[in-house]
Amino acid sequence: MSAKIKAVAFDAVGTLIEPFPTVAEAYQQAAASVGLELPTDLIRERFRKVFGQDEKSSDLDTNLSTEIHRWRNIVSATLPELDQSRADLAFQKLWDHFAQPSSWRLFPDVREVVDWLDQKSIKVCVASNFDARLRLVWNGLEGVERLQEHLVISSEVGVRKPGRGFYEFVAKHLDEPVESILFIGDDWINDVEFPEKMGFKTILLDRHSRCNKANSFVSLKELTTSQWFAD
Questions:
Q1: What is the CA radius of gyration of the chain?
Q2: Taking a C-beta distance cutoff of 8 angstroms, is the pair 176, 155 a contact?
Q3: Of 226, 222, 204, 202, the residue nearest 213 (C-alpha)
Q4: Nearest-CA neighbor of 154 among 115, 126, 177?
Q5: Domains of the chain, residue spans
Q6: Is 225 exposed, middle or buried (0-12, 13-18, 19+ CB in 10 A)?
Q7: How confident is the model at residue 55 (pLDDT cuts 50, 70, 90)?
Q8: CA dihedral 212, 213, 215, 219 (to 10 degrees)
Q9: Each residue's pLDDT tens digit, 203-223
Q10: Cis amide bond preceding 177, omega within 30
Q11: What distance in Å separates the CA atoms of residue 144 and residue 224, rounded to the nearest whole number?
């Protein structure tokens, strides 16, 4: 199996990085800055619903302007108590917040696994629906700087996952046939179901053991002993 995998494409948020503080806490702080006090549990529930509905949109074409508009709508729908003026202020605060490296952290298993893949001469890229802010974030992540030139970002590609064009761009960037690329992420549809249909090898990263899927890992460290890289 080791000869077949020549490259790995990692999702970003939930796979390699996570927001810190949490999304709900960041939204709570942004809301408070414009005079709205809400509990984090309520914000978390609202955000999950709003984001989930947005993810089901059939329009997968994207660019930076589209992403700004999209996130402005998500903020407004998550904080419906705000009038337009205050919603705009909260949106700008959140947009800037999530562009900061200090608002994100690498999962503890990431550096070790990226180094291990590098030692095995396996190509690696980050394949994300995050927008261009990911480049700013990545600048401040220690130990994975070499991946800065291997960020495949949907708003730059022009289509977001699960659009076919996104995965085609990943394969082009890695310069390998899809059957030689292992796609890893925490979203079943975006990171497993659709890339698998296109011929990629796939792994669901289920860090909290919520999905009970056969081809899933709870830690990236499982890659180092997996069938894909067995000697």
A1: 18
A2: no
A3: 204
A4: 126
A5: 7-16+107-229, 21-102
A6: exposed
A7: confident
A8: -30
A9: 999 998 887 777 799 999 999
A10: no
A11: 18
Q: Which of 19, 15, 13, 12 is nearest to 104 (CA)?
A: 19
Rounded Cα distance between 194 and 187, Å, is: 10
Question: What is the end-to-end Cα distance of the chain in Å, rounded?
Answer: 8
Sign of CA dihedral 121, 125, 126, 129: negative
Query: CATH: 2.60.40.10, 3.40.50.1000, 3.60.15.10, 3.20.20.100. Which one for 7-16+107-229?
Result: 3.40.50.1000
Residue indicated by tokens 């925490």: 186
C-alpha closest to that of 33 among 105, 100, 96? 96
Do 7-16+107-229 and 21-102 have matching folds?
no
Q: Domain 21-102: what homologous superfamily?
A: Haloacid dehalogenase-like hydrolase (1.10.150.720)
Say which residue the tokens 């708003």 belong to: 155
CA distances from 81 to 26, 46, 75 (A): 17, 12, 11
Tens digits of per-residue pLDDT, 152-172? Answer: 999 999 999 999 999 999 999
